[in-house]
Amino acid sequence: MKFNYDFHIHSALSPCADNDMTPINIVAAASAVGLEMIAVADHNAIANVKAAIEVGKMLDVTVVPAMELQTAEDIHILCLFPTYEKLEAFYESLEFPAIENRSEIFGQQLIYDLDNEVCGYEPRMLLASATVSEYEVGELAERFDGIAVPAHIDRASNGILAILGSLPEGYTAVELSYRCPPDAGAQFLKDYNVISDSDAHCLADLGKRRFLIDLPERSAEALIEYLRHKR
Predict the structure, then answer these.
(1) Triad 156, 160, 164: Cα angle to 5°
(2) How many other C-beta atoms can be found within 10 angstroms of the C-beta atom of residue 31?
């Protein structure tokens, strides 16, 4: 079965995202444009994921537990998990520098509840890299039954190819930005599962392009199992 998806959406918890990127607004907008599977993947944080999952259950949108990790090398890695509990355990295993966010410079880092109200603020600056290396993150994600996917590898900013010059061994899937043609680097990426996502930071970015994924069922578990196996 083929499903419309977008596995890289930022909520208002990410300081660079619009403040109206609440869990409710994201899932409602995703449903309105026909997305069936999504992931809220904030920078180095997960505080809005659980609410998004709950809203997804109400609106029949599958929300995959996720986070966009920034490694010690400043590489962005999309980390996907079968359950929120697995994502939470992964997150709690990480270490981040204790740098306080300056919202007047970097932006607010907002946590929302199911009433669409701000219920908290993340004080740690989320744009600071974690201590974990890119070379460790794949194994670490797998320890919690998840998968690590190098994000927007076609981009110079925080892309693994721009920083390292190649794809290290161990990855079975990669992400291209939505502006990149789906067949870009077809020969180079022929052994990888390739997903394309919006990396949305505002509601208008959702549904700009449609991407389909063929899975046996609409679930986080099926997605991760699919992405784990090289072509």
Answers:
(1) 100
(2) 18
How many residues can be counted in the chain? 231
On whether the CB atoms of residues 7 and 66 are closer than 8 A, the answer is yes
Q: What are the extents of the domains in the chain? A: 2-228
d(CA 223, CA 217): 8
User: What pLDDT digit, counting tens, does each position of 160-188 carry?
Assistant: 999 999 999 999 999 999 888 767 776 78
Helix (H, G, I), strand (E, B) or coil at 70: strand
Topology (CATH) of 2-228: TIM Barrel (3.20.20)
Encode pLDDT of 14-49 as tens digits: 999 999 999 999 999 999 999 999 999 999 999 999
Average pLDDT over residues 83-90: 99
User: So what's the pLDDT on residue 231?
Assistant: 63
Tell whether pTM > 0.85.
yes
Distance of CA 171 to the CA centre of its chain: 16
R_g over Cα of the chain: 16
- Please give the distance of CA 59 from its chain centroid, rounded to a whole number: 20
Q: Where are the alpha helices (DSSP H) in the chain?
A: 23-32, 49-59, 84-92, 103-106, 134-143, 160-164, 220-228
